[in-house]
From TrEMBL:
Pfam family, one: SMC_hinge
Keywords for the protein's UniProt record, in alphabetical order: Coiled coil
Coiled-coil annotated residue ranges, if any: 173-256, 280-314, 350-419
Organism: Fusarium ambrosium
Protein name: SMC hinge domain-containing protein
InterPro entries, alphabetized: P-loop_NTPase (IPR027417), RecF/RecN/SMC_N (IPR003395), SMC_hinge (IPR010935), SMC_hinge_sf (IPR036277)
Amino acid sequence: MDGATARGLATIRRLKQENDIPGAYGTLAELLEVSDAYRLPVEQIAGASLFHYVVDNADTATYLADALFRQRGGRVTFMPLAQLRPRQINLPRSNDAVPLLSKITYNPEYEKAFQQVFGKVVVCPNLTVAGQYARSHGVDGITAEGDTTNKRGAMTGGYIDPRKSRLQAVQSVNKWRDNYEEKIAESREIRRQVELKDQEITAAMSELQKLEQKLRQADDSFGPLRHELRNKSVHLENERNHLEAAIKRREGVEKNMNVFLEDVAGHEAELQTDFKKSLTAAEERQLEELSDSVQELQKQWNEASNARRSLETRKQLLEGDLRQNLQLKLDQLNSQAFENSASGLSSGGLKEAQRELKKAQKALKAVEASLQETQAKMDDIQNRLDQMAVDRAQREQRQQELSERIEKHKKRMDKSLRQKALWTARAAELAKTIRDLGVLPEEAFDKYENMEEKTITSKLRRVNEALKKYKHVNKKAFEQYNSFTTQQDQLMKRRKELDDSQSSIEELVEHLDRRKDEAIERTFKQVSKEFSTIFGKLVPAGHGRLLIQRRTDRRQEPADDSEGENRGAVENYIGVGISVSFNSKHLDEQQKIQQLSGGQKSLCALCLIFALQATESSPMVIFDEVDANLDAQYRTAVAALLDSISNEIGTQFICTTFRPEIVHVADKCYGVTFVNKTSTIDCVPTDDALKFVEGQARPN
């Protein structure tokens, strides 16, 4: 399949995918199925017809052809089923002549297309049988190996590489095309799923952004609450400290009250008892010692009480510092840690928090100032909005007025269009009348161009009244006469050109014939000269020459005669003859080829081959036992001539022989042996080759 056909088929496949074309069925290769045994005959008979496109009728073929032409999509040959008329042939009915169409599976709807290509073909076991049926029944015969013959006797064949099967290629292409389309469909489905997943991801990201926005709003609203909570916590801690201090003071007061009450009760009890001195001298001394000891202990108690009070004061100071400073700092650090965990900020110390607080206060002031500025802008914008609302009301009023005007103009335009349609119809009628009049002279336009409409109308009315008497006259007769005269002049001019072309072509053909005749005569003279020379070398006592046989006089004349004896052209030649004499140099004693013996005929054939080789040498010549029928003297002469040609011209001769003469002059000898049903070829020495051929020549 050439590139243009491939592009055309690809374009048609694309058109079928884009548009519904029910009448386009496909190529013959796509519409048939055949077994491997008959695939080669089908390909050889169909040839390029395998890629002809089957359609239902000529309209579909024309539509597709126009599409290919417009899109420059290649070239395709169509087979419209409605226009096909395959010729019915009486096929032979025999076991050795099988109709090829019977081995093809196809839809009966395409019967005409397959009849057109395969209807007159039979499959035969060999070319001999195929040729007999071709001559007797007028059919085309083909073998299973692809060798063909037709009713005219022409035969074609040879080795065909089965790996280059067109049908297999079409099936493979269709298979991979279907696979490709499936993969494309899967790719589209995957792309659609990916798009759905992208939409889902987009929706999820949108939802995530909404949640993050809510979180930021919650963080923004949590800041004032956290600050208020911190203030409340500080106030609660202060109140708790005050309460603890008051409770301790109350406990101290209650303790002192109990001590004082006990002292008062003791003093009251002492006051109620009688005062008497009943102590002994020892008890008084002991009382004095105890009094001194009590004073000493009182002094120590006072010192311990002072130390205790100083420690309690220090403890209270430390507890106050703990509650008022360190605890607050701990709360702040915990709050910062909570804020950092929620907003992702890095942790910092107290100083950093203070600096952040100052920044926040400054930012708050800036926000307040910006808020005031924004409020002022909002007031300005509100004023502008009010002004724009007033402008909008005015514009709406103007728009209403324009709409009313447009409606009026639209009505006027409708009226004008109706009038235009009337005048257009009137102009068409007048144009038709002008066409009926035929071609008008130029002076008619100049004469009536500036005339008033009323005058033209009155003249037209009078002319129409006058023309009613000539309705039966052909109004275009003069125009048709001029047209036909012009066509006649063109055709005569074309005829003259064709006559001139015919003369040129005939002169060219005559010139080519002369050159062909000269080439044939020149080649024949050269071959005839070489034949005479070589025959003289092989047969020194004889003489040989080639003769041209003519149809006019049926006589044989020498090929080297003068040109005056060449009566007639090459078409008068009917063949070439050989005239030789092995024992005389005289021309009157020569014999024709039919009068010679077998060995002499073989020698003449070798002379002709050597003459052709001398005229146009070939690099290699193969001889198969050409010396079998030659006498010994001629075998020696042929061997010497082979050696001479090989050395002078360089032609390589490959000869098979059972005679020693060629072996003596051969550069290399090969022996072929047949052992155990196997042929073996080996290079052997010349002596062994001579022994072998001499042994074959010796009688058993």
